[in-house]
Hints:
By secondary structure, this protein is α/β, with parallel strands linked by helices. It has 19 helices and 22 strands.
Amino acid sequence: MRGIRKSFGDVEVLHGVDLDAAPGSVLALLGENGAGKSTLVRVIAGDLHPDAGEIALDGTPHDIRDVATARRLGIRLIYQEISDAPPLTVAENIVLGAWPTRRGFVRNGETRATARRVLGELGVDLPLDSPVGSLRLGERQTVEIARALAGQGRCLIFDEPTAALSDAETERLFEVINGLRGRGVSILYITHRLDEVFRLADEVCVLRDGHIVLHDKVSAVGKDQVVEAMVGRTVERRRRGRDLTAPDGGLPAAGPAAQGPPSDGGSPASGELPAGGDSAAGGGPVLVELAGARSGDAFADVDLAVRAGEIVTLYGKVGSGASEVAEAIFGMHPVDGGTLTVEGRRARFRHPADAIAAGIGCLPGDRQREAMFRSRSVAENLAAPTWRSIARAGTFLTRRSEAVAYGRWHDTLRIRSRNDPEQQIWTLSGGNQQKVVLGRWLERGSRILVLVEPTRGVDVGARQEIYRAIRSLAGRGSAIVVATSDYEDVVELADRAIVMVRGRTVAEFTGDAITVEALTQAAGGVINA
Ligand SMILES: Nc1ncnc2c1ncn2[C@@H]1O[C@H](COP(=O)(O)OP(=O)(O)OP(=O)(O)O)[C@@H](O)[C@H]1O
């Protein structure tokens, strides 16, 4: 690539990018949320047309006008957001866009054979005839990867592929990528995880504000150098533990919950939060409790009690049941065995709206579908207190509360946007969308807060701010449940860490016993820190 420029409206996002990717090599592409990584790879994959610049393959320039042209050239992109067709089957999705046909009829036998071969290469077993819509997020992403491999690409682009994969799926993907390297494929790999860069990549390239600020061999750089290139400053990487010197973790004053009852009257409990101070971990009353809880095939025999001021993490990869337990507290999955007790009262939530009415806040795992109001602005998404209330948006979402929420979280979470509260959320980068949706629940400051993968897709700079905000809410007396597949979340946040494997709790650690080694060993995973 030479001199690639791209603007959206009158905002230039890529300012003349030069980049070379060698055959048989993995190039890791890093940068803060909004730096321009996705825009750059969408240009290469024909999904966006650059305003200026040239792309050449083997020295021959090509005008990559559309995705079909890129595919013919062997360039394939695995999107960050799932772009599959939910009603089609797994096999159909894998050959999507390249159906084997004869005289206009789709050849089902060949479709299934191709799908089976590719899934075999990936070492994954998925039901070929099931609709993709019925699969879990991680499984759907595997379908995306399989689709790219089915296209026999010469240049494969992965956009944060492991974010929703299990340990085993991640290991398999890394094996597949190593295999592709052996076949001379060029691999561009976008990630926010430095450990992946140092494990997998040959070269590392950092984008900052649409400029390349570092491109070198991985063996020639250190982690700190990469982080500094990303954020343009030295990032404080704190060790675990609450910041006792700053009672609010240095945050702006917390959201409306700490200042008085929310304006929609949805949560009677949240106005009673004790003000400020350090965490009451261990000492407060139990606010939420699961006893012998089960939900379908997702999890069983789960006992969990979280006190006011306490952060309990549920650690486990896709399929472990960790996110399902968290989401069950929020009424997204039925508790069909055992009990759920909220503030001393037995709860039977049939819908998230029931949980919200009981004063619970939740950041679900699948934000695109479950938590983002796509056609609304950044400020509206930050201020929207409940899903049910969005229907009454006109009456309560006053400009004032939006402005307050926007002012509070835009800079704290380093949300990269045009600094315009009216900007539509869908025009933000993926990671910045995540920050907005998280900001909504931090703003609400619920008495019970359930967060699924709070740092997924979020850059290193914002990570520490997110940890601070969560600690601060615990310090104000919220009971917080965090389901995560990222051990850093656990080590940074947990007062108590519960490890889950295949729907069961297998270990529990507190205090200094919460280490990366203990977590990964209990989860039966590989230590790749
Ligand atoms: N369709 C669009 N309209 C307007 N602005 C856009 C559009 N798509 C992207 N942008 C802007 O372009 C910039 C770069 O976004 P991009 O998605 O490339 O970032 P990224 O580095 O991939 O971030 P992330 O790590 O969050 O995925 C952002 O400021 C974003 O708001």
